[in-house]
Specification:
- The protein has one domain: Glycosyltransferase (Alpha/alpha barrel).
- 40% of the residues lie in helices and 1% in strands.
- It is globular and about 55 Å long.
């Protein structure tokens, strides 16, 4: 999700100002100002921009994308991500000093935590870390069955969906994860807009209800919720449902809702082949990340035919966006190509995998076998995810502290933007 991925930049800013909650835009977050001369990008971290707001998010998507195409990241890349975990099991978007214990002011969130679970489960050997993270997510499920961006925040489609992906990644059945009798699918069902409610909104998902309880379709939330309804994470299987052909259906099973969401996305992409930004003042601008996320959702719903036009558009137009947005953007494109059945190494004649790897840490190592597993990592129960391997990674590169801002931009997600 956009960074999925992916959260809405506007929404997350509102969260941290005490106004609301959301999911992340990889394109915005990884395009944050570059570190100053007094700052240094930590060893093992992909991307060269300041990781204060999106480090865990972009690292998680990168590790997942590399695993999807059979590539092994260096040990330092895995250690950097594992080293961001707090003793509670949660992850923050980024902690400037991974050697310091998390405290009550550490801005942990569900999206970073769920993304990290998916990534660490994929690379393997990290059952202790993923177990703690999943326990934290379970403990912070809302009574409606969903999750908000922050623990206890109002449930939203993007956060609920990325947590479903985390549960699936560790072989937990999301349907059995219940709070007050409600599953995550119940939370998504409450955000689904019935077919026939206007040509533009019918079949889609809202991010959250508005102040009056009304639902307005949001393409970013819809792409996330299609995957969530199918029980999929960022890396999705192709054709799990029946596709978007034939129009909306009247059922309300998770599969029916995913089908209807795919119908909505296919309609939104039919004219131009891309989705537009939901940010105020940029409504006429193409949203590359959301378009890539929609491709994943459509392919996962079984409608690979509807992915042809947006994939062709992305192949021609992704370059400037991805180069500026960084590793999370390349990861989103790899997910889209992979799920739709295309070759990420020949994406419009370009090699997305090579481009992603070029954003990697210059001082990282290639020997993946040196990554400790849960049996050898230290401090599993009482620490902040800073096992022996994390100290090794810090010693390699001398992680420099990055001054943390007082708010968190990370949908997510795939951050997310509100309609």
């Amino acid at each position: 999700m956009n960074v999925r991925r992916s959260a809405a930049v506007v929404t997350v800013l509102a969260v941290t100002a005490g106004l609301g909650g959301g999911y992340t835009s990889a394109a915005f977050a990884d395009n944050a100002p570059s570190p100053s001369a007094s700052q240094a990008t930590p060893t093992g971290l992909y991307g060269s921009t300041d990781p204060t707001y999106d480090g865990v998010w972009r690292q998680s998507l990168t590790l997942l994308a590399l695993d999807t195409v059979g590539e092994k990241p260096g040990a330092g890349a895995v250690e950097w991500l594992a080293g961001q975990q707090c003793a509670s099991g949660a992850f923050a978007a980024y902690r400037a000093d991974a050697t310091a214990e998390c405290d009550a002011k550490t801005a942990v969130d569900t999206n970073s935590t769920a993304a990290a679970v998916q990534a660490l489960a994929a690379v393997g050997g990290r059952d202790a870390e993923t177990g703690r993270a999943v326990r934290w997510l379970r403990d912070n499920q809302n009574k409606d069955g969903g999750w908000g961006y922050t623990a206890g925040g109002p449930s939203d489609a993007n956060s609920t969906s990325v947590v479903i992906g985390a549960l699936t990644a560790v072989a937990d059945d999301p349907e059995k994860q219940r709070a007050d009798g409600h599953s995550p699918y119940d939370a998504l069902r409450a955000l689904a807009i019935p077919c026939g409610k206007g040509e533009e909104d019918g079949g889609g998902f809202a991010y959250q209800p508005d102040k009056k309880g009304a639902l307005a379709a949001n393409a970013d939330a819809t792409a996330a919720a299609v995957l969530g309804s199918l029980g999929e994470g960022f890396v999705a299987a192709t054709g799990k449902a029946t596709g978007s052909g034939g129009g909306c259906v009247s059922g309300d099973s998770p599969e029916d809702l995913a089908h209807n969401g795919a119908v909505h996305l296919a309609g939104a992409l039919a004219t131009d082949g891309y989705l537009t930004s939901a940010l105020a003042g940029a409504e006429d601008q193409p949203d590359h990340g959301n378009t890539a996320d929609a491709v994943v959702a459509l392919a996962a719903a079984g409608d690979t035919g509807a992915t042809e036009k947006p994939l062709a558009w992305l192949e021609k137009n992704y370059g400037v966006w991805a180069a500026g947005a960084g590793p999370a953007a390349y990861a989103q494109l790899i997910f889209a190509a992979h799920t739709a059945g295309d070759d990420p190494r020949d994406f419009g004649g370009a090699d997305l995998v090579a481009q992603l790897k070029e954003t990697g840490p210059a001082r990282d190592v290639d020997d993946y076998s040196s990554v400790p597993n849960e049996d050898t990592a230290a401090g599993e129960d009482g620490g902040d995810g800073l096992g022996a391997g994390a100290w090794w990674a810090i010693g390699l590169g001398g992680v420099a502290a990055v001054t943390a801002a007082g708010f968190v931009l990370v949908r997510a997600a795939r951050k997310r933007r509100r309609a």
